[in-house]
Design brief:
This protein starts with a helix and ends with a strand. The protein is 4% helix and 54% strand. The longest helix is centred in the first third of the chain and has 4 residues. The radius of gyration is 16 Å and the shape is globular. The chain has one helix and eight strands. It has a six-stranded antiparallel beta barrel with strand order 1-2-5-8-7-6.
Length: 111
């Protein structure tokens, strides 16, 4: 990746991955553990406000996030950015050829 592109990643975020454990009663408990902190990124908002849909439900805010092509990230990971939590809802598959310039994911804000 060129330094020119890396210079555009002017923000940082923390990526968390879902882990599971069993309680003493055998119930699975899902938690998130930090995968990597201080990840260089660039976040852009895709929608400017909550959207009211049928039945009074609200659609969460969606954001596009640019990361280095080597960053490990999958759908269902959580991202913390500017003290807000987000869920990754779209992430590209791994690029085994290593030719990708960057990774672009979509996340939505958790309430």
């Amino acid at each position: 990746m060129s330094n020119q592109y890396e210079d555009l990643l002017i923000q940082t975020c923390t990526i968390q991955r879902k882990t599971t454990a069993s309680s003493t009663t055998g119930t699975e408990i899902a938690t998130y553990a930090v995968l990597k902190a201080d990840v260089a990124c660039l976040v852009q908002i895709m929608s400017k406000e909550f959207e009211i849909v049928e039945g009074g439900e609200k659609t969460p805010l969606k954001y596009r996030v640019f990361l280095k092509s080597t960053q490990d990230i999958i759908e269902s990971d959580k991202i913390t950015w500017e003290t807000k939590d987000f869920l990754v809802i779209q992430a590209p598959p791994e690029d085994p050829s290593g030719t990708e310039h960057h990774k672009e994911i979509i996340m939505e804000q958790l309430t």
